[in-house]
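Support request, priority: normal
Reporter: lab tech (M.K.)
Component: structure prediction queue

Hi team, I submitted a job for Deoxyuridine 5'-triphosphate nucleotidohydrolase from Hyphomonas beringensis yesterday, and the status page still shows it as pending. I've pasted the exact input below so you can check whether something in the sequence is tripping the parser. The sequence length should be 151 residues. Please let me know if I need to resubmit or if it's stuck on your end.
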Amino acid sequence: MSKVTVSVRPLPHFEGLQLPAYETIGSAGMDVRAAVTEEDPIMLQPGERAMIPTGLSVAIPQGYEIQVRPRSGLAAKHGLTCLNTPGTIDSDYRGEIKVILINLGQEAFTIQRGERIAQLVLAPVTQLAWEEVESLDETERGAGGFGSTGR
Ligand SMILES: O=c1ccn([C@H]2C[C@H](O)[C@@H](COP(=O)(O)OP(=O)(O)OP(=O)(O)O)O2)c(=O)[nH]1
Ligand SMILES: [Mg+2]
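Reply from support: The job had stalled in the queue. We restarted it manually and it finished. Here are the results:
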């Protein structure tokens, strides 16, 4: 399988952590780790959210994005998810990738340094160009939506 090369710049606080990697040969996402300090893990009380640093900044080739998606294990076991899922990392963003985690569970959850908190999925992006018109073609659906076809 061909792979797209993405430049990655580990920041000083990434020191000692592992770069995100595919856990299995067929994985769509690479798990990304929390670059919080060992002395200062982030505790999320129920309902709380935080921006978790990853210690990584990247240069994605134009025509691609990285999506930051939740891990199902953290969601199912602890109610932890990405608030803005899927998070979008634009190809021209050079700042640190951060993960906006929210605790929708019923117990506090502590994010330790090196914990795999989310997954990064590289995806192709097609930009659109508007063509402004006065009317649109008719379809069977028309303006029906939001459950118009029934349950
Ligand atoms: O989960 C995320 C989402 C975004 N970003 C960074 C990369 C992205 O390229 C930038 C902007 O994200 P987005 O467009 O979603 O946020 P915005 O609120 O529209 O901010 P901006 O006005 O900077 O575009 O923030 C992250 O690090 N993590
Ligand atoms: Mg934006």
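Helices lie at 72-78. Residues 7-124 form a domain with the Deoxyuridine 5'-Triphosphate Nucleotidohydrolase; Chain A fold (CATH 2.70.40.10). Let us know if anything else looks off. Ticket resolved.
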